[in-house]
Write a structure and sequence with these properties.
With 518 residues, the protein is an all-beta fold. It is 1% helix and 46% strand. It has two domains: 16-242, Tachylectin-2, Chain A (5 Propeller); 333-513, Sandwich (Jelly Rolls). Strands 25, 26, 29, 34, 35, 36, 38 and 39 form an eight-stranded antiparallel beta sheet that branches. Strands 27, 28, 30, 31, 32, 33 and 37 form a seven-stranded mixed beta sheet that branches. A four-stranded antiparallel beta sheet has the order 2-3-4-5, with no helix packed on it.
């Protein structure tokens, strides 16, 4: 039996939920404001994962999410199967709880339908009883509802289309000594018990609690079963209980790694004679701490591996690994034959945090190198073109980018930075690349990130030696998400010749990551 290191997914896959269907494990995660959302991943061993599809092409309401609504959108979802149909139940804290259905986890997934309207409803999980009745357990976001630290229950139709009862408090954290920010419930039936796995204590510093009762209505007894203790895994938090084909049990959860987002860990689970789960490495007869390595049954010895991030852009459709910062609009991109074309999107304020048309992926927790070639098209001398810019960006609450900027006929190699609490971008010009408007300009951009999220931006192809544009810049997390690496093309006004026809082009993207097979 080989071993793999935790985290098994060292990148931002927030609030994972996992089920097993036959020999395959299927995982979904929060996607917040990004589209397409609700990523669906597949694994055979809980440690090697493939990003198969995204269940939600665009967020609803569609118009509301035409702009980046950072911190809103898809919060912690649940994935369940009932009578041959797979269901994803996800909360939008500003609109309510939505449901998607599919005949298979890989899709096709239905359009989302609203099951329960309301602000502050979060972290829903369905449960079907032995008599066929269905229920929903959920939490509360104080930022929208004014309350938190409680779990609620309501009855719904078995097809998850209607609520049949009002929501009532099932477990109030205020009644439990020391219980703070109780949320993220996942409900199960096992061995004659109703189980609710729920984290508490906050995302960065919390712990995992397990509740059980002989009746779904309660009352519930509880234990804290997983905590950081002496490990480096802060806030072991929110996840899924899942069994394997050999009858063993596992707990898949996240850890908040700041700039790298919420990364995924796998813990072994054993049940004692009284039925209680023991997760990870035992601290005492009740509590556990996260393990550093995960045993698997694979006879192969392979390096740590995550979903692919490189993209040759040879297909007409974007790979599921990509997402936008808002609902995508027609004409934003086209790809195929080894190139990605991005339309110059209006950016009147020049703040890339406001731009929905940034095409991005998560910044991995392992050191990584990203390289891509940017091509800026020529422009007619008399064309009414605003200031255009395109390039490679590391995006969070602050951001840094490198690329080309065209003002009139002049094209310059530049980099820009935006501090988290600032409204004005700081741009540095490194060299004049072309003065002739008819010139076609290309540059090879490179971004290196280390294990702490410090970034180096360089340009190649404009001189004998690579040009260092930015050194030792610290990337930052976003709103509820980790930092992202993206491609963009923007113009400072709508006074632009052929807005949907004029595009910046990117060649194949290559991503190398330390310790990762690509």
């Amino acid at each position: 039996m080989e071993h793999r290191s935790n985290p098994v997914l060292d990148a931002d896959w927030p609030d994972p939920d996992v089920i097993r269907a036959g020999e395959d494990y299927w995982m979904i995660a929060s996607s917040f404001h990004r589209a397409p959302g609700l990523p669906v991943l597949r694994s055979r061993n809980l440690v090697d994962w493939e990003h198969v599809t995204n269940a939600l092409p665009a967020l609803v309401p569609t118009d509301h999410y035409s702009l980046p609504r950072r911190g809103s959108g898809v919060w912690a979802p649940s994935l369940r199967e009932h009578e041959g149909t797979f269901h994803i139940v996800y909360p939008d804290p500003d609109h309510g709880i939505f449901v998607l259905d599919a005949p298979h986890p890989a899709g096709p997934w239905s359009a989302p339908r609203l099951l329960l309207a309301g602000r502050g409803l979060i972290d829903p999980c369905p449960l079907w009883d032995e008599d066929g009745r269905a229920y929903l357990v959920h939490g509360w976001a104080r930022s929208r509802a004014g309350v938190k630290n409680r779990l609620s229950l309501l009855e719904v139709t078995p097809d998850l289309r209607e609520a049949l009862s009002p929501s009532r408090t099932l477990i109030d954290g205020a009644d439990l000594p020391g219980m703070l920010t109780l949320e993220g419930p996942k409900a199960y039936r096992k061995d004659g018990w109703y189980w609710i796995f729920a984290p508490a204590g906050g995302v960065a510093d919390g712990y995992q609690v397990v509740f059980r009762s002989r009746s779904l209505e309660g009352p519930y007894e509880h234990r804290i079963v997983l905590e950081q203790d002496s490990t480096e895994v802060n806030g072991p938090h929110q996840g899924a209980l899942v069994d394997d084909l050999h009858g063993r049990w596992w707990f898949v959860h996240f850890q908040d790694r700041g700039v790298f987002g919420r990364v995924t860990h796998v813990q072994p689970v054993r049940f004692d004679e009284d039925g209680w789960p023991h997760i990870g490495e035992s601290i005492d007869e009740v509590r556990g701490r996260p393990v550093a390595v995960v045993p698997t049954d694979s006879a192969e010895t392979r390096p740590y591996r995550e979903p692919l991030r490189s993209d040759p852009f040879t297909t007409a459709e974007l790979h599921p690994r990509w997402h936008w910062q808002a609902n995508p609009q027609p004409g934003w991109s086209r790809c195929g034959e080894g190139r990605l074309d991005l339309s110059f999107a209006p950016s009147a304020r020049g703040d890339l945090r406001d731009l929905g048309a940034v095409l991005a992926q998560q910044l991995p927790g392992k050191p990584s190198t990203w390289t891509v070639t940017l091509h800026l098209p020529p422009v007619a001398a008399d064309a009414p073109v605003g200031t255009e810019r395109a390039g490679l960006v590391v995006l969070g609450l602050s951001y840094a980018w490198a690329g080309l900027r065209r003002e009139g006929g002049r094209v310059e190699l530049v980099h820009g930075t935006m501090a988290a609490d600032e409204a004005d971008e700081v741009v540095e010009v490194h060299r004049l690349v072309a003065e002739d408007p008819s010139a076609e300009v290309s540059v090879r951009l490179r971004m290196d990130a280390d294990g702490a999220g410090r970034v180096r931006l360089t340009a190649e192809g404009l001189s004998a030696e690579p040009l260092v544009l930015l050194e030792d810049w610290q990337a930052t997390k976003g709103h509820w998400v980790g930092a992202e690496v993206g491609l963009f093309a923007a113009v400072d006004s709508m006074v632009h010749h052929g807005l949907t026809e004029r595009r910046a082009s990117f060649g194949a993207l290559t991503v190398d990551r330390e310790g990762t097979a690509i």
